[in-house]
Amino acid sequence: MAAVNRAERRAATRRALLAEGRRGFAADGYHHVVLAEVARAAGVTKGAAYHHFDSKAGLFRAVVAEVQHELGERVAAEAERHGDPWEQLRAGCRAFLAAGSDPTVRRILLVDAPTVLGWDEWRALDEESSARHLAEALTALVEAGTLPDQPVEPLARLLSGAMNEAALWIARGGDPVSAEQALDRLLAGLRVPS
Fold first, then answer.
1. What DSSP letter does each residue of 68-134 carry, written as one string?
2. Residue 35's pLDDT is what?
C-alpha cells in the first residue's frame, strides 16, 4: 500500500510540475521561466523538479511532447468527424491552422520549441503526432487515386512546413479565414482532376 501511495504522489508531483511548467512556458516563454519558481508554484521542492525532469530543458521537452500530442489528437479528432478521406485531410489541416490561435501552441510549439530543442528534435516530436496523421491521410489519398501517385514523404513535409508557417502567421495576427482559403486552393491544386 505504501508503494502505491508513493507512486501516486510521484505521479501527482509530475502532473503538477507539467501543468505549472506549461503555464509558465506559454505565458512567459522558455527563457523567462525558472525551474525553482515552477517547483514553488507547483507546491514541490526544487529537488523534486530536478528528480522528475533533470533540468528546465527536460521539463520543457516533456511539456512540448504533451502539447504536441494534444494537438495531434485534436487534428485527428477533427479529421475523423468526416467519412470522406479528402474531407478528412481538409478538416485535419484546418484544425492544425486553427491551433495558431491557441496561445499555448503558438508560444510553446511554434516559437520556442524549434529554437530551444533544435530543429531535428522538434521535427521528430512533430512527426510522432500531427505530421504522422498528415502522412497517413496523404498515403490514403494516393492509394485511392485522389492524389497522383507520388512519394508521400516530400509532399507531407512540404504541406507540414506550409501549415506551420501559416499557423505562426495566424498566431501573429494573420487572418485565419484567408489562411483557410489559401490552404483550400493549395490542396485543390494537388488533387487529380475529376
1. HHHHHHHHHHHHHT-SSHHHHHHHHHHHHHHGGG-HHIIIIIIIIHHHHH-HHHHHHHHHHTHHHHH
2. 96
Phi, psi values for residue 102, rounded to 5°: -85, 115
> Would you say 112 and 30 are in contact if contact means Cβ atoms under 8 Å apart?
yes
Taken in order 90, 92, 93, 97, is the CA torsion positive or negative? positive
- Residues 159, 141: Cα–Cα separation, whole Å: 14
Cell 526544487, residue located:
46
Exposed/middle/buried for 185, CB within 10 Å: 0-12, 13-18, 19+?
exposed
- Phi, then psi, of 136 in degrees rounded to 5: -65, -40
Output the pLDDT for position 185: 96
How far from 142 is each of 130, 162, 192, CA to CA, in Å?
19, 20, 10
Integer Cα distance of 163 and 18 in angstroms = 27
Q: What is the mean pLDDT of residues 159-185?
A: 91
pLDDT value at 130 more than 80: no
> 17 near 33, Cβ under 8 Å?
no
Nearest alpha-carbon partner for 134 in 60, 50, 54, 71? 71
Q: Which helix (H) or strand (E) holds 162?
A: helix 152-171
- The neighbour count for residue 180, using CB atoms within 10 Å, is 17
User: What span, in angstroms and rounded, lies between the C-alpha atoms of 35 and 37?
Assistant: 5
Which H/E stretch holds residue 59?
A: helix 56-80
